[in-house]
Amino acid sequence: MDISKRMKKLPISSIRKLIPLSDKAKSRGIKIYHLNMGQPDVKTPDVMIESLKHWTQNPISYAPSGGTPEYLQALETYYHDLGFLFVNTKNTIGTIAGSEAINMALFAVCDPGDELLVFEPFYSSYQTSAQLWNIKLTPVETSLQDGFHLPPGAIIESAITEKTKAILYSNPGNPTGTVYTKEEILMLVDIVKKHNLFLLSDEVYREYTFVDRPHVSLLKFMQEIPEQAILIDSLSKRYNLCGARLGNLISLNEQVLSGSLKFAMSRLSGGIIDQYIGSKLVDVPAEYTKSMQAEYQNRRDVMFEGLQSIDGISVTKPEGAFYIMAELPVEDAEIFSIWLLESFHDKNETVMLAPGYGFYSDPKKGKKQVRIAYVLEESQLRRSIEILDTALHEYKKIQ
Ligand SMILES: Cc1ncc(COP(=O)(O)O)c(C=O)c1O
Q: In ligand 1, which atom is closest to the CA atom of 102?
């Protein structure tokens, strides 16, 4: 039996592609420092873990398709605390994490063949989601030298065609760690107004910014462009809840909301236990988020300074999230990443990196780059940097 052509064409994430090699290295007794995935090692808030012990509902039923009232109410409280008082349980749809919110939003705004403008390098799932829905990605390049900030509006506008339906961006950015300024967000708002496009903001790292200016959410401008703005959000990173699969979409566009609800109905329900845990977000002490911010800022500093100290590596200081794109002194960062897993170890230890090409539409573009997720605690990050330095020296000898 032959499976569909479109399924065959679906890209494998460059982040997950090397997992079989890391499994093999582990079976040879090699310890691997995982810098390849955005899965933090920090603890989920106690109140959320505790709540699991108090689950009583039997049988475990479906949840309402758009989210349980408790989960939606908790989200409303969260956005009100941020100052966005117009957000409520009616304009928010509970999703199976940010990943589903992305798929839902793209399904809501694009037809097959439509174009979606993204800033490159971009979160690799944007490419997969676009391909799922038969949407063409139009990448607008940003560069390491400019800290991956947006190019002038005229360059962005020159990528817009009559088929362009939406602009999608992540802020803070994965894989870049860039936090857009208010001027950059305003520029995008002006562009979508002028060209009548949807504007989709993926803010799953909202809490993690290390710059002395506030994070500027699209929510700030949502009432100005109520038909066009869509927010994509997730609890995965904010509460270190990656496995609970909790997210949401916010829109003031009635058609987007009712369409998204139909999408949600097609999969019946999100996880009711997950949403029960998520509804406890209102009891998470503010201290939790503050300590997370401080922790990631310290890790950012350790990783940035460590990478800077290695000969031949180019980096720009990330302003948020927990990723850094690094240009390595190698011809092909994927071959190097494979070599790290298959042929190298330092005292039985090695590091796993995410090859940069997976964050570009044209694999040649990110060829020398890797994305490093600084999701491990400080001592492990320091050891990872040491291993990377040794590995690059060794690699140079055999090149
Ligand atoms: C920018 C961005 N958006 C969305 C997601 C989706 O995460 P989740 O599905 O766990 O919410 C991720 C995950 O790494 C991400 O980096």
A: 4
Q: Model confidence over 71-94: pLDDT tens digits?
A: 999 999 999 999 999 999 999 999
Q: Whose CA is nearest to atom 7 of ligand 1?
A: 98
**Quick one: tokens of 223?**
């009432």
Looking at residue 210, which CATH number applies to its domain?
3.40.640.10
Distance 98 CA to ligand 1 centre (A): 5
Q: How far is the CA of 185 from the centre of ligand 1 (A)?
A: 20
Closest CA to 103 of 168, 38, 161: 168
Q: Are residues 53 and 128 in the same domain?
A: yes
Asked if residues 131 and 7 have their Cβ atoms less than 8 Å apart, the reply is: no
60 CA from centroid of ligand 1 (Å): 27
Is residue 184 domain-shared with residue 228, that is, in the same domain? Answer: yes
Q: Which phi and psi angles does 248 have, rounded to 5°?
A: -165, 165
| 48 CB-near residues (< 8 Å, 6+ apart) | 239, 241, 244, 277, 278, 280, 281, 284
Domain boundary, last residue among 226, 248, 283? 283
The Cα–Cα gap between 380 and 399 comes to: 28
Residue located nearest, by CA, to atom 11 of ligand 1 = 98
Task: Work out the pLDDT band at 126, boundaries 50, 70, 90.
Answer: very high
- Taken as a whole, the chain contains a residue count of 399
Question: How many C-beta atoms surround the C-beta of residue 324 within 10 A?
Answer: 22
**Residue 359 DSSP SS3:** helix
- For ligand 1, residues with CB inside 6 Å are 38, 97-99, 123, 170, 174, 202, 204, 234, 236, 242, 247
Mutate to test the pocket of ligand 1, among 96, 102, 123, 249 (most ligand atoms within 8 A of CB): 123
What is the predicted pLDDT for the residue at 267? 97
- Indicate if 147 and 260 belong to the same structural domain: yes
Report the distance separating Cα 290 and Cα 260, nearest Å.
33
Q: DSSP character for 13?
A: P
Q: What is the overall mean pLDDT for the chain?
A: 96
CB 231 within 8 A of CB 247: no
Q: What is the pLDDT of residues 140-172, one digit of tens each?
A: 999 999 999 999 999 999 999 999 999 999 999
Q: How far is CA 103 from the centre of its chain?
A: 13
Give the position, in ligand 1's atom list, of the atom nearest the Cα of 235. 11
Question: How remote is the CA of residue 209 from the centroid of ligand 1, in Å?
Answer: 16
* Whether 261 and 360 share a structural domain: no
